[in-house]
Amino acid sequence: MIEETPIDLGHGLTGVLTRPAQPSRRPLWVLLNAGFIPRSGPFRMHVDLARLLAGEGFAVPRVDQPGVGDAPPKRGDDVAVLRHGFDRLGELVGADRFVIGGLCSAADQGWKIALADERVCGLLLLDPYAHQGAWFRLGQLQLLLGRRASALKTLLGRFTRRKRAPAIGDGNMRDWPSLAAARVELGRLVAREVGVFALYTGGAAAYFTHRAQFAATFGAPAAAACVHFDHWPDCDHMFMRVQDRQRLLHVIGDWGRTFT
């Protein structure tokens, strides 16, 4: 029977640990929250994902990042606090390998932790960093041409206003590496054979509109066998539709089975 218990990882880091019916040595998944959403995730998506993964034999803590969701204000460097949380989780569960990540800023945080801690063997990135460039502009044009004439004026107005007041989704409110650094960093992760699951939704259209952007952003490492990439332009950023959440859980579950 799957067990769920509250956990205190120290330094203000708290969460809920979902354990499988039978203990295993499989990697432990750390699901981080983002924005104003607590550890349950948007529409309780993290709860459903944790229970699905526990059914596959994974232990899964759902964690409120420092200063995010229900967590208290930050008390130091986020990466250091979360790495300390790894130590505590190792004591609680006996894990020495971790899959980490989440949506939006949780993906950004997972990226930083994966680079800093070699215990990370998997990285879950939902609407993560991407460089705009020429492919982004082509994708914008395709989106515009695919809309009815009545919607074109509204969309063009939005693009014009975005030049004057950048949207939150374009990275201005997120801690992203430079283009050159991102390529080097993904190369480092690939060299360690870290499994990377990168999914961009239509909700990231402020900065990601075309599948070719992924390779243009990350260069040769994007084609590595350990990197899984997809683009769901018909899905919103928060996975509001039930069918989108079900689809997401299915593909993450399939990807999760690659970790033994």
Largest sheet: 8 strands, mixed
Structural class determined from secondary elements: alpha/beta
Shape: globular
Nearest-angstrom radius of gyration? 18 Å
Give the count of helical stretches.
8
Q: Tell me the span between the first and last alpha carbons.
A: 21 Å
Helix content class: 25-40%
Strand order of the largest sheet: 1-2-4-3-5-6-7-8
Average pLDDT level:
89
Describe the structure.
With 260 residues, the chain is α/β, with parallel strands linked by helices. 40% of the residues lie in helices and 19% in strands. It is built from eight helices and eight strands; from the N terminus they run E-E-E-H-E-H-E-H-E-H-H-H-E-H-E-H. The chain has helices at 45-55, 78-93, 105-116, 133-145, 149-164, 179-191, 212-218, 242-256; strands at 3-10, 13-19, 28-32, 60-63, 98-103, 120-126, 195-201, 227-232. It has an eight-stranded mixed beta sheet, with helices on both faces. Helix 2 packs across helix 3. The longest helix has 16 residues, at 78-93. The chain is globular, with a radius of gyration of 18 Å.
